[in-house]
Design a protein that fits this description.
- This protein is of the alpha/beta class.
- The protein has 9 helices and 12 strands.
- A 5-stranded mixed beta sheet has the order 3-2-1-4-7. Strands 10-9-8-11-12 form a 5-stranded mixed beta sheet, with helices on both faces. Strands 5-6 form a two-stranded antiparallel ribbon.
- The protein is globular.
- The protein starts with a strand and ends in a 13-residue tail after the last helix.
- The structure holds zinc ion.
- Zinc ion binds next to helix 4.
Length: 323
């Protein structure tokens, strides 16, 4: 059995998957809001509950046996978080769930659960889930993109997340948008301190801001899409600018890692024109005479985070025995 936990700012979800990836049980609880220790305890309780619900032979969840837990004491647990572990400190960084920042979440959870724990950021969990159980099934290399309030990315190859030397692989949202036109310089300010980041051009709020700059009217992306659909040329121009920018950003990914497919998630993945139009818009920015990379919509929706977390232990499908 594989256990995955998706730790969000307001809700924490857990899933238990069987050996072939079939869903055995799923639970969702509010994320405790009274401090880090409560979050750790809450995840430990949730793991115990979902194992009970899935009918697992629950391994001993007892006193801490410390980090670097040995083999033979049950399956590892995967945790997806809105942030990442710093390779310098082993502690959480870049998390918008600020209660986590500065804590060694994997070690603390391993101690609380008596089992090894892997922590990954939510974009990597998204990419892994879609590669293993969603739109990217069967593909060797998948680039997963979250286009939501931010822009994140994850690379999965041969069923594993490519984490990278600095644990930042795939996070191209804070690269500058390439191939700028004169009107795009210097570009919108980004919260990271840079200007013209891909995120500052291509996220949902960035799409709204671009429309507002052109029209003075603030609309959310679904409203802009609805107007474009109804024939509003101004809204269509906004979507066209966004499409062209996203195409340039993704063409850069193709030139670097040339994935077998690209899968989109997050709120803007509901913009259906992206799937019809992106490949053609990307083509002229890709340095290749052949360009046939599919751009697909996610299949797992909001479940991708928790399912990807469960697949963080790809080579350990059994509930007993060592690694
Ligand atoms: Zn940025």
């Amino acid at each position: 059995m594989r256990i995955g936990v998706d730790l969000g700012g307001t809700k924490t979800e857990a899933v238990a998957l069987g050996p072939a990836g079939e869903e055995l049980a799923r639970l969702r609880v509010p994320t405790p809001d009274d401090g880090y220790d409560s979050v750790v305890r809450g995840i430990a309780d949730l793991v115990a509950a979902i194992e009970a619900q899935a009918g697992a032979q629950a391994p001993a969840i007892g006193p801490s046996i410390g980090p670097g837990i040995g083999p033979g004491i049950g399956p590892g647990i995967g945790i997806g978080i809105p942030g990442s572990l710093s390779p310098a400190t082993g502690r959480v960084r870049n998390a918008n769930s600020t209660v986590l920042i500065g804590h060694a979440l994997d070690r603390d959870l391993a101690a609380a659960l008596g089992r090894p724990v892997r922590v990954e950021n939510d974009a990597n969990c998204f990419a892994l889930a879609e590669a293993m159980a969603g739109a990217g099934q069967g593909a060797e290399t998948v680039f997963g993109v979250i286009l939501g309030t931010g822009v994140g990315g994850g690379i999965v190859t041969a069923g594993r997340v490519l984490a990278g030397r600095n644990l930042i692989a795939g996070e191209w949202g804070h690269n500058r948008l390439p191939a700028l036109s004169a009107g795009e310089i210097p570009g919108p300010a980004c919260y990271c301190g840079r200007t013209g980041c891909i995120e500052a051009w291509c996220s949902g709020p960035a799409l709204s801001a671009d429309h507002a700059r052109a029209t003075g009217e603030t609309l959310d992306p679904p409203a802009i899409a609805a107007r474009a659909e109804a024939g509003d040329p101004i809204a269509q121009e906004t979507l066209e600018r966004h499409l062209g920018r996203l195409a340039r950003a993704l063409a850069g990914v193709v030139n670097l890692i040339d994935p077998d497919l690209i899968v989109l998630g997050g709120g803007l993945s509901n913009l259906d024109h992206l799937y019809h139009r992106l490949p053609e818009a990307m083509r002229r920015h890709v340095f290749s005479d052949v360009f046939e990379t599919p751009v697909l919509k996610n299949r797992l929706g909001d479940s991708a985070g928790v399912i990807g977390a469960a697949w963080l232990w790809p080579d350990e499908p059994r509930t007993e025995g060592g690694r």
